[in-house]
Every structure is written in C-alpha cells, then in structure tokens.
Specification:
265 residues, mainly alpha, 2 domains, two-stranded antiparallel sheet, 11 helices, 69% helix, transmembrane helix, Energy-coupling factor transport system permease protein, cell membrane, ABC/ECF_trnsptr_transmembrane
Length: 265
C-alpha cells in the first residue's frame, strides 16, 4: 500500500512537459487549480478531464503510475461522494433505508469527486515531470520578489523541496520497517483501533531515528560542500524561457478561455 504513494516522485523523460520551464509549469498549475474551484459545472469538468488526459499522454508518464497516485486517497474520494449523495436536498431518485438519494446529490457528489481527482493528478504530474533541483530553482525564482519583505526565498524553497524529495524515501523506509516487524510477528491489520495504534509504536520509533539520521547526514554533506544559503550562489544553467514555454502559455490561455466560455453558457 505504501508503495502506491507517488507524491514527490520524479519520472525522468524528454517530453514536452519535461522540457518546459519549471516556473511556467508551477504558475500554469496554480491557475489551473484555481479554475478547477471557480468553474464548477459538468461541461467544464469534462473539458478539464480531457485536458488532464492529454497532459498525461504528452508527459509519457505511464497511466498506471498516475492512477497509483489516486489509490491511497480513494477512501476520501468515496467518502466525499457518499456524503454529498445522501445529504444534498433535491428531487428524490430512490431511498436506501432512511437515506434519500437525490439527483442533485448524485450530480454534486460526482462533480466534487472529479474535482478531487483532478487536483491530485495535476499536482502529481508536476512532480513527475520536474526534477527536485529544477523545482527548487523555480520556487526560489518565483519567491525572490518577496525578499524585499524579508522572506528567505532560497531557504524556504530549499526546505519545501527537501521535504518533497524525502517523502518517497521515508515511505520506502516505513515499508521496510513494517515488513521487518511483521516478520517478527507484529500485526498491523487485525484487532481494535487501540491495539493497532500500540502496534505502530515499533514503527514510529525507528522511523524517527532514521529521519533524524538522514537529516544529520544531509546537513553534514551540505556543510562539506561549503553550503551557506543562497547569498552569492550561482547556477551552472540559468533558467530562461524558451519558445516552448511561450507556446505552452498560448495554448493554456486558449484552453482557459474555452473553459470560461463553457462555464458561462
């Protein structure tokens, strides 16, 4: 189950999305996520689903990997759908015991579920197609105007990227610890909730120790390379917008206008 968590993982490639400037990808993703919340209608969500499917095909990321990113959150999506299905007033379709299923509840539950899936898939595509180093440079570049307000842009971008980068590492470490404990007779599936929580203690202790050890090793490695923050730091490859990025912005603008027109109709 833990291997299904795809947050923070990078899939190397040379696709259109991989070659785009990371700053452009982050900005376009933020605009697209805002549109997911603002344009709340079935035609728009169908259009966004088609756009998301096209992005997956363009990225050359296996569809199976993208679907695996949804698997750990299926219960949240299902719970949201059921909650809207039985709690939204409207025209009655059928009755299950004392609960009433309405047409409006069915439509609203489907729209909210699709919205959650779009948010997860689009966010996962960013990490799939952007290396941690490019993501750090892009975040620092986007946050650099706030330096005048005292915001430590480089340090904040570094912390966010390191946290994102170590999610797969910690998940893999947790999976190894769980398998080691299960081989010694530990049970994490059966029993009451209290007993299962107690059984998690042998996992949390070595996991925290491993996380602190990795953090200490990372700090020593950064000090050994004379890392002193972003002040005076240079880059081997400066980030510049290419023709590819302008084409992506133009296409995205046309798609956004089309989604806005579909929402108003």
């Amino acid at each position: 189950m833990l291997n299904n968590i795809m947050i923070g993982q990078y899939f190397p490639g040379d696709s259109f999305l991989h070659r785009m400037d990371a700053r452009v990808k982050i900005c376009l993703l933020l605009v697209l996520l805002i549109e997911v919340f603002v344009f709340t209608s079935a035609p728009v969500y169908i259009g966004m689903s088609v756009v998301t499917l096209l992005l997956i095909m363009i990225s050359h990321v296996p569809v199976r990997m993208v679907l695996r990113s949804l698997k750990p959150l299926w219960w949240i999506i299902l719970f949201t759908f059921v909650l809207h299905l039985f709690s939204h007033p409207g025209r009655e379709l059928c009755r299950v015991w004392q609960f009433v299923i309405t047409q409006e509840g069915l439509e609203q539950g489907a729209l909210i579920s699709v919205r959650l899936m779009l948010l997860i898939i689009l966010s996962t595509l960013l990490t799939f197609t952007t290396s941690p180093l490019k993501l750090t440079d892009a975040l620092e570049s986007l946050l650099s105007p706030f330096k005048r307000l005292g915001l430590p842009a480089h340090e904040l971008a570094m912390m966010m990227t390191i946290a994102l980068r170590f999610i797969p590492t910690l998940i893999s470490e947790t999976d190894k610890i769980m398998k080691a404990q299960q081989s010694r007779g530990a049970d994490f599936v059966t029993g009451s909730i209290l007993s299962r929580l107690k059984n998690m203690v042998p996992i949390l202790v070595p996991l925290f120790l491993s996380a602190f050890r990795r953090a200490d090793d990372l700090a020593l490695a950064m000090e050994a390379r004379c890392y002193r923050g972003g002040e005076g730091r240079t880059r081997m490859k400066e980030m510049k917008l290419a023709r590819l990025d302008y084409v992506a912005i133009a296409i995205f603008s046309l798609v956004s206008v089309g989604l806005g027109v579909s929402y108003t109709l």
